[in-house]
């Protein structure tokens, strides 16, 4: 790659040829740095590029080579067909979480004025998707992180989703909200603090408080299950995303706290990814 600050004429073709990243990633970073679509890159691949865009691209390539997730470099990630802003203050929404959204949609679809709560909303991906898919639902979302909530609010405004945002620790964030939810969903931090994966791959760059409960991985799930009874209507549902090996433990928690119709659903990889029950 040309050195930063070196006097060379860079083109799409020369930058692509010199870049060691996978071709798709190179193209995505070029598109974003140049603010041009793919068709433009193809049609103008021999044209000298603006120096500022070239330096930005080279900086992103260096950061990507150091392992930084593409979503943080690009500042966005697609979820359920919508593009969400992401920053290092929020978890990068995962395709796994679409299982939770699809299950929630099955429960609230075609029910007018249904009240839904998303606990630990991060980028707002779950709450906003539900608000857009079910416009008759009244959607609330909370997060302990003010910085995450700022990203969620911006996503809500940009995507024109009606969500009521609240900041604070799980249910304590809802001090001024009436109980009586038809559905509570959450993808809480569920990685045990000792899990070596926290020091690997994309997880190294994501907020620690979005990933781990700082304990056994079940602490946040336990707090949410324990508190849900007071916030759900009779017959209301609680559905939680959890780790690949936590379904049995979460079902046991739901049964302990008096939930009925307790069950789990698999993600696209066939792994029990969410568990839920009915108050
Ligand atoms: C795994 S991330 C999920 C983000 C988003 N819902 C998603 O699925 O992409 C967990 C979120 O829970 C939030 N969180 C962690 N501890 C919390 C607490 N005690 N109360 C409320 N939110 C909390 C984190 O800030 C983070 O945004």
UniProtKB/TrEMBL annotation:
Domain Release factor glutamine methyltransferase N-terminal per the UniProt entry, residue ranges: 14-75
Residue ranges annotated for the Methyltransferase small domain, each copy included: 112-195
Gene3D superfamilies: DNA helicase RuvA subunit, C-terminal domain (1.10.8.10), Vaccinia Virus protein VP39 (3.40.50.150)
Protein's UniProt keywords contain Transferase: yes
Pfam families, sorted: MTS, PrmC_N
Annotated InterPro entries: DNA_methylase_N6_adenine_CS, HemK-like, N5-glutamine_MTase, PrmC_N, RF_methyltr_PrmC, SAM-dependent_MTases_sf, Small_mtfrase_dom
Chain residues that bind substrate: 187-190
Main enzyme class: transferase
Catalysed reactions listed for this entry: L-glutaminyl-[peptide chain release factor] + S-adenosyl-L-methionine = N(5)-methyl-L-glutaminyl-[peptide chain release factor] + S-adenosyl-L-homocysteine + H(+)
UniProt GO BP: methylation
A molecular function (GO) term: nucleic acid binding
Domain of life: Bacteria
Keyword entries, A-Z: Methyltransferase, S-adenosyl-L-methionine, Transferase
UniProt key word Transmembrane: no
Binding site for S-adenosyl-L-methionine: 120-124, 143, 170, 187
NCBIfam families (UniProt xref): hemK_fam (TIGR00536), RF_mod_PrmC (TIGR03534)
HAMAP family per UniProt: RF_methyltr_PrmC
Summary of the function given for this chain in its UniProt record: Methylates the class 1 translation termination release factors RF1/PrfA and RF2/PrfB on the glutamine residue of the universally conserved GGQ motif.
Family listed: Belongs to the protein N5-glutamine methyltransferase family. PrmC subfamily.
Protein name in the entry: Release factor glutamine methyltransferase
Species, as recorded: Corticimicrobacter populi
Gene name tied to this protein: prmC
């Amino acid at each position: 790659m040309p050195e930063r600050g070196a006097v060379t004429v860079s083109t799409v073709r020369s930058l692509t040829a010199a870049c060691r990243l996978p071709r798709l990633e190179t193209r995505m970073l070029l598109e974003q740095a140049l603010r041009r679509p793919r068709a433009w890159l193809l049609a103008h691949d021999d044209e000298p590029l603006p120096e500022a865009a070239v330096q930005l691209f080279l900086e992103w390539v260096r950061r990507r080579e150091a392992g930084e997730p593409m979503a943080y470099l690009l500042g966005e990630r697609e979820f359920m067909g919508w593009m969400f802003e992401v920053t290092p203050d929020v978890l990068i929404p995962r395709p796994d979480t679409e299982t939770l959204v699809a299950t929630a949609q099955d429960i609230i679809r075609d029910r007018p004025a249904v009240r839904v709560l998303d606990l630990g909303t991060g980028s707002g991906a779950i709450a906003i998707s539900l608000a857009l898919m079910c416009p008759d639902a009244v959607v609330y979302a909370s997060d302990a992180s003010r910085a995450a909530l700022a990203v969620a609010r911006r996503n809500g405004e940009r995507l024109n989703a009606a969500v009521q945002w609240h900041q604070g620790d799980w249910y304590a964030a809802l001090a001024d909200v009436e109980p009586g939810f038809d559905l509570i969903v959450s993808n809480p931090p569920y990685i045990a603090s000792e899990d070596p994966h926290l020091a690997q791959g994309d997880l190294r760059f994501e907020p620690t408080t979005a990933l781990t409960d700082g304990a056994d991985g079940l602490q946040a799930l336990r707090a949410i299950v324990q508190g849900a009874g007071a916030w759900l209507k009779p017959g209301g549902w609680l559905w939680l995303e959890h780790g690949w090996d936590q379904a049995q433990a979460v079902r046991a928690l739901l049964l302990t706290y008096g939930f009925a119709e307790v069950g789990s659903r698999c993600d696209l990889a066939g792994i029990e990814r969410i568990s839920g029950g009915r108050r």
